[in-house]
Structure formats: C-alpha cells, structure tokens
Specification:
Blueprint lengths: L2 E10 L8 E11 L4 E6 L5 H9 L6 E6 L2 E2 L7 E4 L11 H5 L1 H5 L4 H14 L15 H14 L4 E5 L7 H18 L2 E5 L3 H7 L2 E6 L4 E7 L2 H6 L4 H5 L2 H21 L1
Parallel strand pairs: 3-8, 3-9, 6-7, 7-8
Antiparallel strand pairs: 1-2, 1-4, 4-5, 9-10
The chain binds adenosine-5'-triphosphate and magnesium ion.
Length: 262
C-alpha cells in the first residue's frame, strides 16, 4: 500500500525544433506509510517531473505510478501539492484560501470553516483568519499554502521547494513546523529541496538524482528528523558529527555529478 513508482520514464516530446527531452529514466521508488522522502539533485535532473507524475499532472511515457495498488489517472484529493510559490488566491482572506479545496469538493460552509480553522491554528496563523493573504509575509503565506494542502486530508503531501524563498531563520522554523505536522498527521511526504542540510534534517529517506536522463543515483536512510522529534534541538541535530559527515558525503556526490555534467 502507499505509493509505488515502477520503472517510470518520461520523455517530453520535441518542441520548437528542439529534440525530445528524456527527463526521467526507469525510476523505481516507494513512498509508503509515514515515509518522508526527500529528493536532491542538480537543476534539470527531473525532480519536479517526478513530482508531477505522482501528482497526476503528467503521465509516464512508460512504467507505472500506483497509489494503494491503483494506477494514478490524474490529480486527486488524495495527493496535495505545495509549490515554491504558494499559488494562493489573492482576493480571498486566509480562511477562504485554506478552505478553498473543501469548497470545490462541495463541503458546506460551516464544516469547511471548522476544518480550516483547525489547520490555521496548527500552522500558527490563528490571529490572521480574516487577513488578506497579500498582507502576510512570505513565510506566513507559505504556511497558508501548507494549511490549504492539509485540509483535504491527503494521503500524500507533495512539496516542490516549499521553503526555497524564505530567509534562513524563518526557513529553519518552517522545517521544524513541517516535521511536527508530519509526525502528528502521519502523512507520506515527497519533498524537493536544493539544500543538502534541509534534505538531511527533514527526510527519513533521501534520493539523490542525476541528470540527463534523470535517474536515482543514490539512496540513503536518514535518522535525523526522528532525533529532532524525539526531543533533540534542531541545531544540535544539525551540528552532530554524524550529520556533518553525511552532509559532506552528499555534497561531494552532488559536486562530482555537476562537474561530470559540465
Ligand atoms: N513541459 C516540459 N516540456 C519539455 N521539457 C521539459 C518540460 N518540463 C521540464 N522539461 C525538461 O525536463 C528536464 C527536467 O526538468 P524538471 O523541471 O523536472 O527538473 P528539476 O530537477 O525540477 O529542476 P529545478 O531544480 O531547476 O527545478 C529539464 O531538462 C527540463 O528542461
Ligand atoms: Mg523543479
């Protein structure tokens, strides 16, 4: 059960006289139970393409994507996406943005506000329910996007560089918040980042992808998010010898891949 990606390949057809792009080749990946899978890799190696396959925005050229044993046929409420840029509706206030997916599903107003309020509180936005989203800071807007993704109670949460635009301090706080939510809601997560430190801290599993064609070149099991959730302060986890050794190992892999591709 959970998400099974089997031998999935994606070839974008040729356009504007350019040759076709083999974006992914024979990806095998399982995201089950409360796995928190993080993808790292150079720009263009196919991370967002892989997320689009899982989200159902895109079909594989070959291979298959199974969710609880059934083929993914398109987008669905069982998978929610948080983008780098929040994609909120600027003319609506916070609660109406958060409740938007439920409205589309036809949930009545009282019930959808009740559900939305719970997630707004969980994300620490309780005082901003009726604020317009454009009056919020970038970090707060991103939290509104995460609350909106959670309201439909998806099985899988897909996040494409959700914290990339935040300053260092806000980003660390947001990492901790996401881990706390993940541990209390027991979702499967697929999370893309360009930060090696963020990847190691957040994930239970790490995939490092290599470009042209995009493949999973390395896989690691990670203990660090569970250490944080077990009570070790985040900075202490990130400063531990084990963390630093793995960070350097992964950085070396990424730099050597980039040099090989250059
Ligand atoms: N719609 C599309 N049509 C044609 N080619 C595409 C399309 N989307 C992506 N590509 C190509 O597929 C490859 C993988 O792109 P993708 O966006 O998945 O990479 P990425 O790893 O997410 O990169 P980044 O880290 O920059 O976000 C790239 O070479 C890209 O140019
Ligand atoms: Mg991308």
């Amino acid at each position: 059960m959970g998400l099974n990606i089997r031998q999935a390949s994606v070839i974008y057809p040729s356009a504007d006289g350019r040759p076709p792009v083999e974006a992914l080749r024979k990806i095998d990946l399982e995201i089950v139970n409360d796995d928190f899978v993080v993808a790292l890799g150079a720009s263009g190696c196919g991370k967002s393409t892989l997320l689009s396959l899982i989200a159902g925005f895109l079909s594989p050229s070959s291979g298959e994507i199974l969710l609880d044993g059934s083929q993914v046929q398109g987008p669905g409420a069982d998978r929610a996406v948080v983008f780098q840029k929040h994609a909120l509706l600027p003319w609506l206030n916070v609660i109406d943005n958060v409740a938007f997916g439920l409205k589309l599903q036809g949930v009545d107003e009282a019930r959808r506000y009740e559900i939305a309020r719970g997630f707004i509180k969980l994300l620490g936005l309780g005082d901003f329910e009726t604020s317009r989203v454009y009056s919020l800071s970038g970090g707060m807007q991103q939290r509104v996007g995460i609350a909106r993704a959670l309201t439909c109670d998806p099985k899988v949460l897909l996040m494409d560089e959700p914290l990339g635009a935040l300053d260092a301090l806000t980003r660390e706080k947001a990492q901790e918040l996401i881990l706390n939510i993940w541990s209390s809601t027991h979702k499967s997560v697929f999370f893309i980042t360009h930060s090696v430190e963020e990847a190691l801290f957040m994930g239970t599993k790490l995939i490092v992808m290599s470009p042209r064609p995009g493949r999973i070149a390395h896989r690691f099991d990670l203990p660090f998010s569970r250490q944080f959730l077990g009570g070790t302060p985040a900075r202490e986890v990130k400063a531990s010898r084990e963390f630093i050794a793995l960070r350097e190992e992964v950085l070396k892999i990424i730099f050597s891949d980039e040099e090989a591709a250059a």
